[in-house]
């Protein structure tokens, strides 16, 4: 059980910075909402065990939807976890819940797959399907081919959609899409491709979250290759976009010059800006 006083003391500065103290003061039942949020933290599963988010919500609030993303109780519980340093404000809700052992519906979300599917699956050539967390948790991948055994990993569904269009023409595309921040289950499933003889080419947006995504996959599968994730690629992306301010950039150990360039420009750039080059790589079957 978490010590409420210690959690509150640790969380207070972060809650203040995030504007949560003002929200609590304005709430009709701030004390009741705070008690329930702390009860959620008390009921988090022990290390090494998992709990479904709807079961957790039902146990605490007698409402299985009380911890859905749109609910104030969910927002406050996640804010407490982040402000106390247990999770991070930068994490999306599914990733934050995953980090404390809470599963957000193992049939929703997952990886979009084009041309690469678990062993034993039989799908039409070029089909795009979603592999849910339930399948990703234990799936085995087919053995990689001897030549060009590359599976590409992207962040954005728009890239996956274009890849599916390319696959529909008969090009043997192999691509997985995280649709944003990958969960621990998704990262582990991607890393298992290495065990089956595949090589991984990983990329994401040139923003704080995208850099973190690439770093997370490289941490789980160090033999992966960053896919057009260098300083020159970033500069090229800025030439056709890049008007969104960039507040923070993490380290880019695969190419330190990338982090330097991103901090110098202070602008994010997105995968869609490089779509013609990405499709050319998919057509070739290997990264440059």
List the main descriptive attributes of the protein structure presented here.
about 290 residues, alpha/beta, Dna Topoisomerase Vi A Subunit, Chain: A, domain 2, 2 domains, 6-stranded mixed beta sheet, about 45% helix
| Low-confidence spans | none
Topology pattern, helix = H, strand = E:
HHHEHHHEEEHEHEHEHEHEHEH
Sheet/helix structural class: alpha/beta
Number of H/I helices: 13
Number of domains: 2
Percentage of residues in DSSP E strands: 5-15%
Give the overall shape, derived from the CA principal axes: globular
What features would you describe in this structure?
It is globular and about 60 Å long. Helix 1 (4-17) crosses helix 5 (72-83), helix 3 (30-42) packs across helix 5 and helix 11 (231-238) packs parallel to helix 12 (256-265). By secondary structure, it is an alpha/beta fold. A six-stranded mixed beta sheet has the order 4-3-6-5-7-8, with helices on both faces. The longest helix is centred in the N-terminal third of the chain and has 14 residues, at 4-17. It has two domains: 4-103; 111-284, Dna Topoisomerase Vi A Subunit, Chain: A, domain 2 (3-Layer(aba) Sandwich). Strand 7 (199-202), helix 10 and strand 8 form a beta-alpha-beta unit. It has 13 helices and ten strands.
């Amino acid at each position: 059980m978490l010590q409420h006083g210690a959690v509150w003391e640790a969380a207070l500065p972060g809650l203040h910075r995030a504007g949560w103290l003002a929200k609590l003061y304005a709430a009709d039942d701030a004390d009741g909402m705070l008690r329930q949020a702390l009860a959620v933290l008390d009921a988090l599963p022990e290390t090494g065990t998992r709990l479904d988010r709807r079961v957790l919500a039902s146990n605490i609030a007698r409402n299985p939807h009380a911890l859905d993303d749109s609910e104030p109780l969910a927002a406050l519980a996640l804010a407490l976890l982040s402000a106390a340093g247990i999770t991070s404000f930068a994490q999306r809700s599914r990733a934050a819940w995953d980090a404390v052992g809470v599963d957000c519906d193992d049939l929703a979300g997952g990886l979009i797959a084009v041309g690469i599917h678990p062993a034993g699956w039989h799908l039409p050539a070029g089909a795009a399907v979603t592999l849910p967390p339930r399948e990703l948790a234990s799936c085995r991948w087919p053995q990689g081919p001897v030549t060009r055994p590359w599976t590409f990993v992207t962040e954005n569904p728009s890239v996956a959609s274009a890849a599916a269009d390319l696959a529909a023409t008969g090009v043997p595309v192999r691509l997985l899409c995280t649709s944003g921040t990958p969960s621990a289950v998704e990262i582990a499933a991607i890393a298992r491709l290495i065990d089956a003889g595949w090589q991984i080419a990983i990329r994401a947006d040139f923003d704080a979250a995208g850099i973190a995504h690439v770093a997370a996959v490289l941490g789980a599968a160090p033999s992966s290759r960053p896919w057009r994730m260098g300083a020159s690629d970033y500069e090229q992306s800025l030439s056709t976009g890049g008007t969104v301010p960039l507040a923070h950039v993490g380290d880019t150990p695969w190419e330190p010059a990338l982090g330097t360039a991103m901090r110098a420009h202070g602008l994010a750039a997105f995968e869609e800006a490089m779509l013609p080059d990405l499709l050319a790589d998919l057509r070739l079957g290997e990264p440059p």
